[in-house]
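Name: Major facilitator superfamily (MFS) profile domain-containing protein
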Amino acid sequence: MDHKYGAELTGKQFVALCIALCTGTLIEWFDFTIYSQLSSTITEVFFPPSNAAAQQLSYWAVFALGFIARPLGSILFGHLGDSRGRRVTLLWSILCVSVPTILIGCLPTYHQIGIAAPVLMAILRLVQGLAVGGEFGSAIVYLFETAPAHRKGTIASLGQAAIAPGIAFGLIACLVVMYACTPAQLLAWGWRVPFLLTAFFAPVALVMRMHMPEPHDFLVSKQQLTMQRVASKAASRAAASFTRQASAAARHSVTAASPASRVLSSRQLSRRLEALTEVVVTPEDQQDSCCMPDVESGTATVKGIKGAERSTGAANGSLSALRSLSLTRTAAPGSYIQSTEVLLRVPQSFTGDATKQAQHTQQDTQHTSDLDAAVLSCEEAYAAELQHQAAVIKHHVPLLVLARSHWRQVLLLFCFEACYEATFYTFFSWLPNYMRAISHLPPQDTLWPILAAMVLFAGAVVATGHYICDGTTPKVWAMVGLTAVGAAICTPLLLWCSTGSLAATWVAPMLVCGLLCGSMGGLMTSIGPQVFPAGVRTSGYNLAHNLAMSIFGGLSPMAISALALKLPPPALAAGVLLLLWAALAVAAAAPLVRLVPKINAREPAGGL
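Structure predicted for Major facilitator superfamily (MFS) profile domain-containing protein:
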């Protein structure tokens, strides 16, 4: 195996997996494109013909259902990816994206089975939406985690670049059936052909994903978070048991001099136990030495983690100890993880550090001493609880970890993606329909500029990943600069498009949807995964990305139409909305960098 990768992979296997992962994104956007570009045909085939407005409303309601389902899918598949593994998630997501696409091509029409046709369509779109919520983010995360350290930006950008061929193939498929079929043939069977094409390349992607190894960083982080959950649960149980015993002792005790006889808060004791607990994961390539985090009185370096008790002298002469409890989990033979051990620090108040003790009031010192005495008193119960909880708890709960420790990152990344998602969907989805409405161009004439824009998009994504994300340019500030450029040029371009100019029909999508959004997308595939630790990376990145895509992207056409009623023309309303989302994205940049400084470090994207 080539150890430059983040998993047990050879060079050929890594290339094959890159292709397999990019194919999932390609299928996702292929389906999105053909469903949206064949809207008039699908509306006539699947929805009741009694009222044209009701037909359109029903079509776009089913279209929106897929967007609404994406955040739910990000939660479902994110939990699966962070708790069970990346491979399981990516196998299920490719199945749930591709199978409904093929089934849509086989559905009976409204004229054949009546109202059951749109109901079945809605169910299939719902399943697709759930799967899409897990597919893209999980694929980006896997590419990022397994890529060589100096090429993470480039490799992760390939997943984003796969959007372009997906859209391009979808547009080409639509153009072929539009040119090759008469209107009657298109209604009868021609619309089915693009959906059924998925059956040719989806099985290939599925087979290539069957033997995906798990990334090393994910295995270590997952093991650590699982053991932290075990330790937290054990600390809570041991503290509750000790508090009950202390309460009973206090009722029968004449004096309160004994720490065991004082009634202490179960929550305080549990938190103290957790604060003094260390979870150490030893990967196979680090089994000869392990660097322990610093203890309260100084930094300690401990060789190995085996043994009943380890200690080291601190700089101030006090003694800090790491007491190894009875839980050591050893992984299966051949696993990247060697072992995981839970260690308990000897409480600081028993090390004889008079300087620190003098900094507290007498009351605080006494309270800390009581807590530390209680920690030592319930150490045996804690060790027993560790054994019990380790037998029960097999994985961590990513959503709980996100809600407790990383909700700010989710919120800020969601806001940071606002301008990118809104800009892309405005120029890719809303603008072609708007141009057809005001200039009466045939659908084919508005598809060719989008096709050309996708070529530029793919090139810009990969170039940004290679030269900026794998270079030394601060990625967040580069994204802020691109957001400012977008805020400056989008409104003038949209107003130019509102004149019906044929040149604007070509220039605006190629400049914004191609070059600008491609560069922004290349940055986001490197920034997003770095915001979260590996053990919750799929959940966190998927959730933030899909919320931003659904709200700022999927709802953009509806928001523009609503604002245009108060602020005509629609092109101006679209420009104003993009300015608002740009301001939100810029406002989120500095807090995001303060919270996760490594995402903006002047080094390649390799640091996890």
